[in-house]
């Protein structure tokens, strides 16, 4: 099965709907409640949808996805997409989990401050109809607490043209659950040196 390997079942990703929870417009409690509801909806879809990446034999025992504690500080708003990405070709082939490649475009970088340092994550276009920026990333949890090939963010522009990176919405690709899926592997250029303890994680003692 090809595609981005995103957690999108029956429409928009329940962990990243167009009406995203925002600490600016919502209270922190409302923000956390909204994300909790989105996660519960995603668990239901993973358990019941015929398109679930969880193999049928494992769906009855599936108890839900595992997450780091929600952290409003892991949400970065008002980001601008810088163009072009210096010293890197715009068009390139991104490797996939099944040993193949697919064409991708580097659209620019989103810069945010984390632990007192500026960090850049490059946004990509995979030519899908969905239209959101594709921002895969690796961090110091990859391969231990989170899937070794990285996690994904789908990022849509705000009304003012800026972007928000909310790592509480970070999710694993479908290939983290089944080898039947072909998912883009996170390029090394999108590795964060720190631990990003927000968003989806692996169950304890389940390194992949």
Q: Which percent range describes the beta-strand content? A: 25-35%
- Helix and strand element order: HHEEEEEEEEEE
Approximate helicity band: 10-25%
Euclidean distance between termini CA atoms: 20 Å
Task: Tell me about the largest β-sheet.
Answer: 4 strands, antiparallel
Give me the secondary-structure category: alpha+beta
Whole-angstrom Rg: 16 Å
Mean pLDDT: 87
Morphology call: globular
Can you tell me the residue ranges where pLDDT is under 50 for at least 5 consecutive residues? 6-21
What's the number of helices? 2
Total strands: 10
List the helices and strands and how they pair.
Blueprint: H1 28-48, H2 56-59, E1 66-67, E2 75-79, E3 81-82, E4 91-95, E5 101-114, E6 117-125, E7 133-137, E8 151-155, E9 163-166, E10 200-201
Antiparallel strand pairs: 1-10, 2-9, 3-5, 4-5, 5-6, 7-8
């Amino acid at each position: 099965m090809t595609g981005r390997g995103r957690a999108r079942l029956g429409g928009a990703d329940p962990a990243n709907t167009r009406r995203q929870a925002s600490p600016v417009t919502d209270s922190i409690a409302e923000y956390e409640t909204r994300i909790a509801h989105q996660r519960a909806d995603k668990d239901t879809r993973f358990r019941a949808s015929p398109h679930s990446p969880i193999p049928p034999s494992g769906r009855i025992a599936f108890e839900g996805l595992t997450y780091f504690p929600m952290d409003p500080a892991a949400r970065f708003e008002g980001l601008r997409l810088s163009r072009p990405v210096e010293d890197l070709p715009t068009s390139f082939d991104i490797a996939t989990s099944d040993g193949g490649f697919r064409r991708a475009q580097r659209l620019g970088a989103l810069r945010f401050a984390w632990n007192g340092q500026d960090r850049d994550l490059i946004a990509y276009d995979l030519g899908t109809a969905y239209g959101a920026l594709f921002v895969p990333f690796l961090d110091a949890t990859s391969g231990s607490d989170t899937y070794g090939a990285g996690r994904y963010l789908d990022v849509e522009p705000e009304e003012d043209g800026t972007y928000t990176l909310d790592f509480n919405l970070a999710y694993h690709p479908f290939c983290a659950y089944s080898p039947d899926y072909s998912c883009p592997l996170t390029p090394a250029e999108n590795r964060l040196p720190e631990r990003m303890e927000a968003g989806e994680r692996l169950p304890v003692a389940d390194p992949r």
